[in-house]
Amino acid sequence: MSYTNKIISTNSDEFTFIKTFITNLINCDERITWETKLNEITSSNFDDLETQYNTANSTPSFTININNRITITFKRVLQSSAQSTGYTITSNCFTISRIINFSSSGSTSSTTSIRTWKFVIAANQGSVCLSFDGYNVELGKYAYSFCTISEDNVSGYSGHYIAGANAISQPFYMNDGSSIVKTDRLPYIYDSNNETNVEIIANKVFITSNSSNRKVSLKSFCDVSTVAANQIMYVNNKKYYSVDTHTLMEV
User: How far is CA 60 from the centre of its chain?
Assistant: First the structure.
């Protein structure tokens, strides 16, 4: 079990910034990997990625893979020789693309400047959750959020853009093509000054939307109401990360 909360910020060229971001991500958990494609050949070689930044008419891109279930592709908004402030994000969890900015000022990829991204990774034996966004975004309120589940009875993934919504209340997409959504919530409110107000359900129960009354109990997550998203808290001497406002995972 682990929890990592980092701000990746470099005063460098863009490739150095991106390499630092990728390296920090994959060092958090072995279930997180990356790859890029150069001349139609896929690899996890930083030399191949650097070549894209050193080629004037190239549009650098790379893909993050979480637990062999979620793919998140980062593609520079403009070619490496053009001034840009960020990257377009696409994923097998999204139906539309979005943009993550590393600065308010545009620059070419070779320009030395300050670039910043933020991310949080929470992981336990059954799940990996990643939340990230740009230099000026508060992760607990607005961020890209992805979770995977890998347990004996269920294997799936979910991802969306948090904007006051609950990540785990969004559908999880399963290997068999079905989707699961959360049912009822607990009527308790978390008080940071009195943790006894927190009541936890050990196994969070989901029910499918396209398979009548199919229930799934998850060991990786537990249910709670209402907490701040993207926070670390301690309940009964155990450390938890709040995936969203109603979901905790032990880390």
Answer: 21
Give me the pLDDT at residue 153, please. Answer: 55
Please give the Cα distance from 21 to 43 (Å, whole number).
Answer: 17
In this predicted model, what pLDDT tens digit does every residue of 22-40 receive, in sequence order? 999 999 999 999 999 999 9
Identity of the residue numbered 196: T
Report the alpha-carbon distance of residue 7 to residue 102 in Å, rounded. Answer: 11
Residue type, 17: F
DSSP 8-state secondary structure symbol assigned to residue 10:
E
Per-residue confidence (pLDDT) for residue 218, from 0 to 100: 62
Angle between helices 46-53 and 14-26 (to 10 degrees): 150
* pLDDT class of 149 with cuts at 50, 70, 90: confident
Per-residue burial over 83-121, b if 16 or more Cβ lie within 10 Å, else e, is: ebbbbebbbebeeeeeebbbbeeebbbeeebebbbbbbb
Domain limits, the chain: 2-119
Quote the pTM value.
0.83
Q: How many residues belong to the chain? A: 251
